[in-house]
Amino acid sequence: MFNSTATHTPSTTGTRIDDPFRLRFGSTHRLPRGLREEAAGMSWSLFIATYAPAADIRITGLETTPGRGGRNTYTAELTHLSKTEPPFTESREISAMGVASACTHLLADAGRHVEILAFHQFPIFEATVTFVRLAHQTHDSRTGWAMGFGGTPEASIAAALSSGAQRIHG
User: Fold this and answer.
1) 104 in the same domain as 26
2) Origin, by domain of life (predicted)?
3) Of the candidates 5, 26, 51, which is a domain's last residue?
């Protein structure tokens, strides 16, 4: 179904392998090394379709209420999309130490267990982009990179983890 080691013929300019993110945004930021190698030579549309697929369980509307001892309460909406049933949205609340922890727990509660193996985030224009490498939290070896954009760092994390869970669980 999904092979994170799929090879693509890299497009080169001189001795540099083309990075679709860098080519798209002309940014000084590059994709994380493993993702850059996987995505070398991809068109932007293929890159987005591969690493930021529309998730059938999306975390949106994330709000944070500071708590005690470093823990926060996160309120989020989980939108469930299906090809056979009407979409529905549920509001969820969870206590966690950070946004990534809250999102991974919300996804796990929805049956999309993932573990973050690598995390990269930076501002891009007036938004934030997050890149994550995820693994399935069971004994199988499915791993994969995902990307998410958001108006805030928190929204970007939620988008990246939602896309990553979609890639891992399909």
Assistant:
1) no
2) Bacteria
3) 51
User: For 3-53, what is each residue's pLDDT tens digit?
Assistant: 444 444 444 444 355 889 988 887 677 899 999 999 999 999 999 999 999
Domain count, the chain: 2
Token pair belonging to 14: 């001189």
Comparing CA positions, the residue from 129, 67, 139 lying closest to residue 98 is 67
Its pTM surpasses 0.70: yes
Helices (H), the chain: 20-25, 33-39, 44-51, 99-109, 153-169
pLDDT value of residue 29:
79
Q: How confident is the model at residue 133 (pLDDT cuts 50, 70, 90)?
A: very high
Q: What is the C-alpha separation between 64 and 147, in angstroms, rounded?
A: 22
| Element holding 6 (H helix, E strand) | none
CA 98 to CA 95: how far, in whole Å? Answer: 9
Residue 78 vs residues 49, 55, 58, 90: alpha-carbon distances, Å? 21, 11, 5, 5
